Amino acid sequence: MQATIKWIDGRMFIGESGSGHAVVMDGPPDHGGRNIGIRPMEMMLLGLGGCSSFDVIDILEKGRHQITDCVTELTAERVDAIPSVFSKIHLHFRVMGKSLPASAVERAVRLSAEKYCSASIMLGKAGVEISHDFEVLEG
Questions:
Q1: Cis peptide, bond prior to residue 101, ω within 30 of zero
Q2: CA 105, CA 97: separation in Å to the nearest integer?
Q3: To 10 degrees, the CA torsion angle through 40, 46, 50, 53?
Q4: What is the mean pLDDT of the chain?
Q5: Over the stretch 75-98, which tens digit does the pLDDT of each residue have?
Q6: What's the pTM value of the predicted model, to 2 decimals?
Q7: CATH topology for the 1-38 domain
């Protein structure tokens, strides 16, 4: 896996993934940015959410469950020191499907957290307290 980060000006950067996709990252005005792109730590949080959500949907679909929607809400706390690393992250999965058993969603969330989500496992090994919960909605 490869990526390139190109400085544009101020605190704005363009990040390009090895697969050719790009994203703008920027900082707040009080740090020299123009606030026109996502913050790097927000990007990390989104990466964790995307990784976990990918796993949950993949596991449920492989189990032949009918999923109609999945929204993962993340809340994170950072330490009040430099470096301002994450101390806690909570993922709340709202999964919607047709006759979707809660036990299947619980299993998918657990497998993602404990076995498959590289981002979650890596952050957990770095000392971040990561928690998960879910709700199942009919539809």
A1: no
A2: 10
A3: 160
A4: 97
A5: 999 999 999 999 999 999 999 999
A6: 0.92
A7: N-terminal domain of TfIIb (2.20.25)
